[in-house]
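Need tokens for this chain, all 179 residues.
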Amino acid sequence: MKRLMIPLTISTYCIALFLTLTAILDTRWPVYLWLVSIVVSFILSLANVCYAIIGKHEESNIYRDSLIFKIVLIPFFIANFILGVLVAVSSLFSVFTLFFFASIPLFIIALLMMVFAYWLMLSTSSYSIVLRLKKVVISKAPIKDVLIIVLHFIFVLDVFAAIILYRDYKKGVLYYEER
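Here are the structure tokens for all 179 residues:
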């Protein structure tokens, strides 16, 4: 998990860095690096989800590592949310100006930012979701497992779900067939 999550976290923060450099500098090279970092982040997150699905994992590290990476990515999600709101609002205001056609690309950019952030959230939750789904499929799972899976699909609540899973694992409340 760490082999994929560390580069994913770095490439995700590179997106923010190169976007900031694009806004500050009057050159094109940060735009190209921004696009490359988006593609790299998407590929790494896709690999992360695939590895979560097909890989063999030890439960002891999954919940801790998932929680750590979720917490490390919180500043990115906050910045992405603020920037997405600014882009969306500016696209709404451009409808009332002479730059009507500028609102369509801005809206598409805001939509892509939301989709990428959601995909990134799901990729950091993928290991926990897979382990809990195995539990649900293998045996009669408590309603708590199903609720935890659902919480992993909702922004902010996914962090609370990761905290609950890690806390329960440390207490010995979680159980899994390999344990």
